[in-house]
Every structure is written in structure tokens, then in C-alpha cells.
# Entry
Amino acid sequence: MSSSKSASRDTGNGASLAAGQMVFYDNCVPTLEVDDYLIEVTQVAPVAATGHDTPETYAVSQGFSVQGPRYALPPNDVFSMFPPDHSEGVFNQFLPHVVLTKRELPWERDVFHDKDSQRGTQTPWLALLLFVENEQIGGRPALLPPSAQNPRLSAPITADSFYDWAAGKPSERTQPAEGILWPRLTPAWHETEDALKSTTSVVIDLSPEAFKTLLPPYPDLPYLAHARQVDASAKDQQALNIAGDGWYSVVVGNRLGNAPPKGASSRGTEPAEPGQRNIVHLVSLEGFAEYIKGQSLPAGTSRVRMISLQSWSFTCRPDAGESFSKLMQGLIADAGNRLKSTSFALPVPSPAYDSTTQDASQALGSGYVPLRYQTRLGEQTFGWYRGPFSPVPVADFVTGAQQPRDDSIGRPFDSASAALIYDPKYGVFDVSYAVAFETGRLLALADGHFGQLLMAWQRNGHQHVDLILERASQVPALRTLRQEGDDPTAAATLPHLLGPHALTEEFVPYLAEQFAAKMTSRLADRQAAPSVLGLRSNATTTSPVATRQAVRALLEHPLVRSAVRAHGSQGVDTLVDCLAHLYLLVNVPFENLVPHEGLLPPESVRFFYLDPNWLAALVEGALAIGIESSRDAHYQDLMKDVIWKATHETVPKVRARLHPNTPASTTSAGPMAGMLLRSAVVAGWPGLSVNGYTKADSQGGNAPDPASRMPLRRMERLSDDVLLCLWPSVPALVSIDEPHEGVAFGFEDPPHGEGDYLDLRSLDPASYGTLLPGRSIDARATNVIDASNIVKITAADGLIQLIQSALPGSPAVHIRDFAVQMVRVPERAVFAPPAIDEGSDDRAR
# Structure
């Protein structure tokens, strides 16, 4: 990690990040904050007009507004919260925080009027408040229920409620109405009554005692928000769609989560069920600046009403619950510490010594599941099915055979039925590739754009073949086509010989438009005497009919085949773009990928090989929608290797478009591999970083070698708790890291005993962010954390002063430096897959 003073709105001023790196910034103050502005332009005439002593002056003005969130936040502005919403865990050492996708959002409004453009500083207008369920402060509930209740004690109202409409136009509320102190907001010129009535805002009511106790002190607020840039090359597609540039802003609370003491029970004599619910609200400070700076609340205030822009809750347990490390451990071991399988196969017991049982056990161990199957004759039976994910490598017997050939050899898959594999020993079918073929066909039929591209490409190829067939009898240079071995330049010459005799794409529109217009004008000219010309007959032989036999005979010539393949490859780019998405399993139904829940149970991770034959059958099914005749099939056969080569070359390009921050990848000769993760960590920690490595670090152990990081082929959340990752080859190690844009803030356990310790990090630019051995602060012993679990930051005995005193040289501690000191080390889980038999699967034949 590294630091920088402030972030700019221009991403070009950001750091160039290495893999896994992040940079902290004090803030990101926009040049123009949210407000109303007036542009005035004045021009003075260069000379005075006749009869005037001074030049005339011309002026014009234009008002405009910079708008931003005020009463509510758009959903996409919030990237993640920590602790995760509805989670349970040991969170009493963490400061809650929210990650926002707009890096300048906390500084868009200058509500304290303290912007310093020279220093690039400004107090944020947002703050995080943490409430403990049912807590009382000063003998009164901290959160008071508004007119309507929900579990977070908030209520929706319309934005016009924030203003006094007695004068017929909105004006700020100046005195508490019915004991409620509203935020003093000045309406913008564009905030009409109709617009405000259609805007919903969520409010919470605090007791005056809670307002005084829980609102961060004014000097602390700048330290509770910062901007951050992170490496975004290992994020899933959903995370990139929300914030693909790697820039975020973070707002941190100043109060630790509250947990009951160990062994406590909220039910008296009943068994202990520890757990304390905490509620977090991201509130707007607009309209409360003078009170936050120290002014007393108005007399008669019984509750303070604040705008809540985001809220969530979590349960804090004293010694057990969800955490990143516990969830990662739960992927490989159950509650009894028994190892879980990471193989993409149904768990099966050791088979008895029986050939039938052993064969079934072998099929299950190879990733197959038995599914109900109805034959074409209507018989009800079962069939073996395995999707594209296999626990064992599978020999490629389809794509390797995709070469130009004649009909006597046959195509790999002409239909789904042709892709069935029959087991004569037991009389059952392996329907895996038949399902893949039909899946590709149905997905292609559902994509009208792909169908149009495929038909246009084939039609263009047929027209080129027809042109060669027709011109071969008319152009003298084409009547005696020599063999490729006789004239190596003939293959390149053939297209040039055809060019002058082919209709260009511009010719037909010319006939229909320009030529027709010219002829019409000539015919309208009555004075022009028409000339009578006799039509000359073509002395050449009649063009042959494009029958199947004639086309086959023509395509048997090597030079013609080369010319047709060269012509067909020119328009294949747009076609294979769709096939490359299909090859990456985009939009393939989940039940086709995971046909049985037992293959991916809750809280599990599965590593697998991709079956190249399944992918080939999928693509073959998509291409099959363009085959309406034997001629179509023959043309696709001729172009098969061209299509596959272009598809493989397009796969990395598609990945680069989906994940522009990912390093460019190349096609690997080895088998593709992947990982499926089903866990609460996917939903609770959005933006997980997942990386595959080809080798471990030279120091030994399971630490990955950063230089061997593999580019991802695909990374996408298939559902709230399922994450899919694909790599171009088999990784030796896979790491899953906590998202750096949402790393937690708080304290650590001491080496011995109890307490909340802060392990200090270097602020030296040469070693910025590295831990300093032996330098730590006991926050509890130094009274940095008060009785309400609020962390004192800028006070004379606060954390900033303690950090500065404990660091070598007592350097100044800036906002970014404070954030770096408070960061809990992001955790990483490293998986080293068990050794797998590299032999090919006997069933894939």
C-alpha cells in the first residue's frame, strides 16, 4: 500500500498500480461542489461608437447547478458495507465502514464552509453512526421511533417535509416543531414542490443526549473519510460494472461494535445465546454544522431528525460467528474439523467389491450424476450427465478433429443425437455432449443477432463459390486451373482474377439509385433521339448450375479451397465474438453447469478442469442453426478450423472487454481450469480478489509467487453466493483475498491476555504501510476508547497523538496515514489443489 496527499478528478493523476496494490488519499475534493452557480461574461467593444465617449459594454449571464445526492443515495453509489448486512461475527474490535463508488462523494457538499482550495482540504458532509439495539443514553433511548417503525427505527418521508411551506415556497425550518429539530436546509432553485414530493428520504430520530454523544467531534470528521485507488484486475464482473476504475471513497465510523460479555445471556436462566445487534446509519450532516461545532441545541428539542442515506445491521458475538477467516476455513473443514472435498464430484462411499458398483462409483467420482432420461422411443430410464466441469482432465477428441474434410469422414456432431455416447455394457447413455449441443443450439436460436451474422456469413461464402463456378467457364485465365504444386502463386492469383468480374457491394445500390436517376432524366428528355443498339450475345459456354455435385467437384481443387477459406475468414470476426462468449459459458444455464446440488453444497469450494469436448459440442450446437442443407454443412466443414482458430484468438479479447483492468491473456495449450465458490463470503465481501498462480514462492510453503499470476478468462458472480472463475490453464495455487477497497478498520488482539491493540505501520515513503515490529498501542489501557466504545481521535489524549508519539521520528499523521494505521491486515486464503491423476477420462471417448 502507498499514500498520496489528495486524489484528483482526473484518473490520469492516479497511481499506476501493481497487482494487489492500493493507494490511500486524504480526500477527493471536487473543483465545484454541489451548489448553484452563475456565469457572467462581459465584453467591451474595442472602439467607441460614433457619438459615444466610451466603448460600449456587453454582458450576459447564465445560471447552472451542480447536483448531487442530498435526500437519498442511488443504490449503485454504495459498493459495500462492513460488517456485512445481517452478518454475525466477532466484530467488537472493528469500526464499521461503508465503501462508496464515487471517490468525491463525501466532499461534494461544503456544509461546514471550511473548504481550503490551496491546501485541498474540506470536512466531509457524511458520517457513520452506530447504535446498539435498545440502548439508552442519559436515561433515554438513543434511537427514537419515528411515525413508522422498521427494525432499524427509520421512516420514509417525502423531501418536501424538510421545508416550511407557509409562504408558498420552501424555506428552512428555523425552530423545533413539536420538539423535533429538523436539519436547516436551504432549498435549491430547481427543487420545486412537485419534485420534492416525488423524492423519498429516510430519516432517523436521535435523542438530544445521543446526538451529543454519538456525533463525531468536528475535528475528528476529516479523519473518518478518505479516498482510495485499488488494483481492479482480479474482480468479478458485477464489481467491475459498479466501479470498474478501481476508485472508491470510504466513510468510517468512530465507534466499535458492541458485543455482550462472554457467556452472557439475554434470557435469564436459559442457555446462553450471546449476540448483540448493532445498527449503522450513514447520515447527512447538512443542516447541523453549528451544533456539531459546539453550539447548544435549541430549547425544547426532544429529538433530532437526521437524513439516513444508508443503513444496515449486524450481530456482534463475543467469541464465535462469521468472519472471513472462519468462512474460508469452513470451505475445507466442517464443524467437526473433518476435511471437505474440493473435487467437483458427488461424495461416494468406498464401493464394495462388485464390478457394477465399482463402475458406478468410478462414474460418480469422475463428476457424472445419474439423471432421469427418456429415450426417443418413450422408454423411461436414466442417463449419465456431466457438465463442462470435470474433476479429472478429459482428452480432447472433438476440437482436434475440426479440420477440412469431405463428407465420407463425417462431421463430429451433426445433431444432439449424434453426440450421445452409448454404454453397451449397461445399456445406458452418456447424454453430456448431447445436452451441450442442444444448449448451444437453443442459446443461438434465442440470439437473433447471432443468427443473422451466421446466415449472412454463410450466404457470402456461397456467393463466392458460385462466382468461382460461374467465372471458371467464362474467364480464360480460370479455365485451366493448375494444381497448387505446379504454380504456388496461383492461390494468391485466383482472388485477383475474380475481382474484376465480381459485383461489388456498392454496385447494386448504384443501380437502384444513381443509375436509375440518370436513366430517368434521359428518358424525360424528349429531344434526345434514342439510339437502337443490338444486344450482343455471349459467345462463351453456358454457366454450370450450382448443384451439390458441381460445388463438390469445384471445392476438391486445392486452389479453390484455399481461395474460399481465405475469403470466408475475412468476415468471421463478428461471428466468432458470439462464439467466444459461449465458449466462456456466458449465459449457459446454471443447472447445465451444476446439475446436482450435491456437486456444490453451501459453504463449499470446487476446483475443476473444463471438458473441451463439452465446450466444442456447445459451439457446434450454436453453428448448427445455420445448416439448412448439405451445402451449408460442407461449407462449415471447410471453414471449421478457421472458425475454431478465430474463436480461440477472440476469447482473450472478450475477456479484455469484460475486464479491461485485467492483464492480456494468451491462449494456452493446456486444459482450461476453474473454481466455483458457494459461500456467504461472496455476498458479504463483494469485490473479492481471486488469483491463480502457476507456481509457489521460492521461499517454500504455500505462498504464491506474484510473478506467476495468471490472467483470468472469466470471473463472475452467478448468484448472491456463487462465484465462478476460469483460467486458461491449471493453476498451482489459488488465493482468495479480502477486497482491498473494503478492508476492515479496527484493533487487533494482543499477543497475550485481553485488550485492543493497534500494531503500527511505517510512514516512511520507502517502506510505507509495512508493520513495525514491537511498536503497538494498547487502546484500552490508554483510554483512547471511552465507555461508549467511541474512539477518540484528535483530542489531546487521542489516537493521533499516541500514534505520532510511538512512530520513529514522530512524523505528522495525515488523514491517509491514520487510515493506513487503522487497517486490519486483509486476510488471504490460499488453496493448493490436491494431486489429480493426469490420465484422460475413460468415459470421454
The mean pLDDT is 80. Residues 745-823 form one domain. The first strand starts at residue 2 and ends at 4. Residues 630-658 form the longest helix (29 residues).
